[in-house]
Every structure is written in structure tokens, then in C-alpha cells.
What we know:
The structure is a homodimer. Chain A has helices at residues 6-14, 18-29, 46-58, 72-81, 95-108, 127-143, 165-183, 203-220, 232-245, and strands at 34-38, 64-68, 87-91, 111-115, 151-154, 188-192, 224-226. By secondary structure, chain A is of the alpha/beta class. In chain A, strand 4 (111-115), helix 6 and strand 5 (151-154) form a beta-alpha-beta unit.
Amino acid sequence: LQILRKDVQNALRRRDPGPIRELVVKCISAGADAIDINSGPLNRNPESDMQFLVDAVQSVTDCQILLDTTNAKAMRAGLNACKNRPVINGVSLERAKLDQMLPLAAEFDADLIGYLLDAGSQVPTTEAESIDIAISLFNAVEAAGVAGNRLIIDPIVVPLMWQTGTQHNMAILSVIQNLPDVLGFSVRTIAGVSNLTTGNFPQRKKLMIEAAYLPMLAAAGLDMALLNIFHKETVQLAKACSVILQPTPFSWAALE
Amino acid sequence: LQILRKDVQNALRRRDPGPIRELVVKCISAGADAIDINSGPLNRNPESDMQFLVDAVQSVTDCQILLDTTNAKAMRAGLNACKNRPVINGVSLERAKLDQMLPLAAEFDADLIGYLLDAGSQVPTTEAESIDIAISLFNAVEAAGVAGNRLIIDPIVVPLMWQTGTQHNMAILSVIQNLPDVLGFSVRTIAGVSNLTTGNFPQRKKLMIEAAYLPMLAAAGLDMALLNIFHKETVQLAKACSVILQPTPFSWAALE
């Protein structure tokens, strides 16, 4: 639920839950397991804006909600509004963010996405550095009184066009694979797949490359993927990954 | 080049290279980097049959040829006929096969596919067993005077429908990833992807699941995949894997 979408923006301004409900219902029926509310730069009424958005989503689904804001007041309002356990999206080692968000995570016993970015919010350059950051995040989370297993790690997919893009995006497969051993429990992981193809390329090529990367992430053990749920082929491929990785008597049936 | 295809069979019987040339040209233009000649149960004239097939292929392409026969005479004829370095496809720890094929590999300095099957040609049940078999194969190859880096390992994809299908097919990703460390050089690997979906399922579901598995194999480090080159989506996805894993200035351009 991206505030940059005009329909979401207008619905928010008019306090009309209709278009948001419609969009969420479309997402859920397309296969979404959770909804990310990116409330953008909430201006005059960050708290009531976020509460309105959460209420609108919850009026049509019980699915998990990711609260995607850097505004601590909006985050608190969202956490208060959520009926089920929400996800704070998110923190990095940036001190200000940790100081604002960790107490909220503790107070609401919320899940919490931790980005593997350094204290200056830069992408690390080696696998070892990513692992070190994950350990630091885990320690910060526990020190703030948040249960360690509330942490969901985002290892940061970067554009392939970056000079180190291939190297980094391969390294994070190894990070995802090794994190449970490093942290000592089956820590959950999340990744934003579309970041891979940032740049001026034809949409069909972008989708093909994202489709190739998704199974690599899945095989490494990724738990959650942020993706455009209306790209039907990508969603089908995600389901096909499940047929391979977590087959059930009905998993083939879920394929179209 | 599957002898069970009626057109190949008839061409062979009539010693008419036309239909074979046509098929090979179609394979190459669809993106094939090598052609597997599965000559089936060659009856009266195994040697001249194989020579005819190799000649027919070589009359239209310089690509590498996999000689896929258990008949040692046909294999020798094929090796003799190949202008470029051929691939013997293949051996397992089965003693009879090793005794027949290893001397041929040594004599012709051919590449050689080694299947990770036990001495009774059964699929191993653990990753450790697969690794042990790879080491035994490597030792047998070197003992026969074949250069170790001529070996191409096939870790054996099994049908997902097998009781241990998921476990085994995930284990071989790890096998592919670890083999270079175990053997001490960047040993090449090959896999037959379509084996994954053996069973009575709709073709589009099979292709979707194969499409999900191919990037997993690629990320693990697989070098060669045996697949139906006429499944355009699968070939495109293989190219998309290259964009991620081995990008070149032109790799995006190779996508359609």
C-alpha cells in the first residue's frame, strides 16, 4: 500500500476507505500473505493518517500488516490500531532509528524488520560485514527487551547494475543461508526482490530476472518476499518454489 | 537427439542426415550449447549407427557432443567420429561401466559425466553419501589415467514425487555447492532438470516447477543443464540466471 499511488493518496485525503479496501482485497486474492503500509511523508496528521490506513486494511483482512514509516508517532498509532501482531518496518544500525523503534517493538511485542545496513545506512561490502551487522542488530534488539525471535532480517538486495551488484546479491544468498547458524535460531528473513532490476530496462526483462532470483532466495531459505503481487508469473513461480521446498498434498494444486 | 523420436529413428534407418540436421539447427538456434546423442538400443550396427549420427550433427554445428550410450563399441565409434572433444555420457560406480568407459575416456582424452549413483546404480540417500561417491568416482577416473578435470558430475535430480524427493533435491544443491571444495578444483556439474517433475501432471505445472528449480541449481553453481531447448520460457530463465550470476555488457540484451 504505497502512498505514492494517487488512488491511495486521494482515499487518505478524503478519509474514504473504499479504494483502499478494494486494493487490499485485490492483493489478498492475488496471493498476498501480508500488506505493507508505506505511509510516506505523513504531513499534518501522521497519527490519524496511519490509524485510518490500518483500519481500512483491517476492515477487509486479518493478514499481517507491515508498518512502513520512519515517523515514530505514526508508528505508535499504527501499532495501537493493529489487531494482530504487526511488523515494524524497520530499523538499521542507525542510532536514531534504534532509539525510536526498539522501545515501541518492546512495548507492543511487535515483529521488527532489521536492515543489514551499517550505522551510516550504507550497504556493507562483504558477507562478513553483513553477518556482523546482523549480530549487532540482534544484540541491540535483545538489549531493548525485545524477544530475539521477533527480528526479521532484510539482507538488502541491491541493483544488479551496481558495480558490486552480482557479488553482493550472491553474498546475501549465503547470508540468508548462514544466519540461523550464526544467531542460533531459525531467524526469519525478508527481501525486496524488485530492487534487483532498478534501472531503465524493459519491464519484461526486469520480471524475467526477478523471476530467476526469487528461487535462489527461496532455496537459501528466505521466508518473506516483498514483491508486486499483481505480477502473476512471479507469484506462480513463488508457489512453484513451495512445491519444491515445502511440498504438501495440495501444493501442486495451488499452481494454475 | 533422442532415438525414441520417430523422425530421428527413421532418419537413422534410412541413413538420411536431413531430418537430423534440421533438428540440430533448430536446437542450436533455440540456444543449445551442446547436443546429447542418445542412440538408444543400437541393434545390428551400433558403430556405423553412432558414426552416422555424429557425422550428421557435425555437418551443421561445431558444438560439443554428448555421446549417450551404454554400448562400448558405439561409444568408441562416436569418440572416433567426433572432431571436437566429446563427452562420454556417462559412468557411475557400477564396475562394468567403469571398466568399459574409463579406458575410452583416457584414450580419447574425452570429458566424462559421472553419475552420483552407488555401485548398484541406486540414488544415495544422504548428502554425505553423494559426496563419498563423487570422491570415489574422482579416484577411479584418476586411477584410469584420465585427468581429474575431465570429470563432469551429475548429482542426479530425482522426481519430487519420491518420498525423499524434496530432501534429495535440496541436498544436491548443497552437493553442487560443496564439490569444488571437496575435490579441490572447480569441478563441472550437470543436471537433468525435467526428471524433477516425472509423473502425471499438466505440462504447464511441470514447466513452472522446473523453472523454479533451474535458478536454484544455477545459484548453487551448476555448469550445464540438460533440458528441452524448445521450452522457450525455461531457456529465457536460464539466460536471466546468467544476467544475475555472470553478467556481461550484453547479457541483458540476450533476454527477449
